[in-house]
């Protein structure tokens, strides 16, 4: 495939099979940017510093939310770039796609942010993201766990998600 400058760009990765290699990463952040949960399933290049990776992902979400609100053609009140928005304030984005991955995102009224990084040909993930949030509410919010219980609850939730 040729791009404007005539340089060759890499094609999309192969379409995922039914063996479950569709999801690469999942993040869950609280409203303050603290990563509550992170999991990799299919990420060939590992990050050297997970905390830096989490900060970059949260910063990307913050910037995209601010940018989409600023570019909203239906709103007179555009706000300022870089000013934090409350959950549900302004317009929002649900996903973006590159030639190698798709990032899907949801934010709850309480400020919980759930991100899935998947194969680029993955469809709309708004319903699965809601399902993941419901699991989070059921196994974490409704049952304030000890650290040991949290690890087993997250492991169970991951098993449920993996078997979807």
TrEMBL record:
<dbReference type="GO" id="GO:0030008">
    <property type="term" value="C:TRAPP complex"/>
</dbReference>
<keyword id="KW-0333">Golgi apparatus</keyword>
<comment type="subunit">
    <text>Part of the multisubunit transport protein particle (TRAPP) complex.</text>
</comment>
<dbReference type="GO" id="GO:0005794">
    <property type="term" value="C:Golgi apparatus"/>
</dbReference>
<comment type="similarity">
    <text>Belongs to the TRAPP small subunits family. BET5 subfamily.</text>
</comment>
<keyword id="KW-0931">ER-Golgi transport</keyword>
<protein>
    <recommendedName>
        <fullName>Trafficking protein particle complex subunit</fullName>
    </recommendedName>
</protein>
<dbReference type="Pfam" id="PF04099">
    <property type="entry name" value="Sybindin"/>
</dbReference>
<keyword id="KW-0813">Transport</keyword>
<dbReference type="GO" id="GO:0005783">
    <property type="term" value="C:endoplasmic reticulum"/>
</dbReference>
<dbReference type="InterPro" id="IPR007233">
    <property type="entry name" value="TRAPPC"/>
</dbReference>
<keyword id="KW-0256">Endoplasmic reticulum</keyword>
<dbReference type="GO" id="GO:0006888">
    <property type="term" value="P:endoplasmic reticulum to Golgi vesicle-mediated transport"/>
</dbReference>
<dbReference type="InterPro" id="IPR011012">
    <property type="entry name" value="Longin-like_dom_sf"/>
</dbReference>
């Amino acid at each position: 495939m040729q791009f404007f400058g005539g340089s060759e760009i890499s094609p999309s990765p192969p379409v995922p099979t039914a063996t479950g290699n569709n999801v690469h990463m999942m993040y869950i952040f609280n409203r303050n940017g603290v990563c509550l949960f992170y999991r990799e399933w299919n990420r060939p290049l590992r990050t050297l510093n997970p905390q830096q990776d989490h900060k970059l992902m949260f910063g990307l979400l913050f910037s995209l939310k601010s940018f989409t609100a600023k570019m909203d053609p239906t709103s007179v009140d555009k706000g300022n770039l870089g000013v934090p928005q409350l959950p549900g304030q302004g317009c929002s984005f649900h996903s973006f796609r590159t030639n190698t991955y798709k990032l899907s995102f949801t934010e709850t009224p309480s400020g919980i942010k759930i991100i899935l990084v998947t194969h680029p040909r993955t469809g709309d993930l708004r319903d699965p993201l809601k399902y993941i949030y419901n699991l989070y509410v059921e196994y974490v919010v409704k049952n304030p766990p000890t650290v040991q219980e949290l690890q087993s609850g997250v492991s169970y939730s991951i098993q449920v998600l993996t078997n979807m």
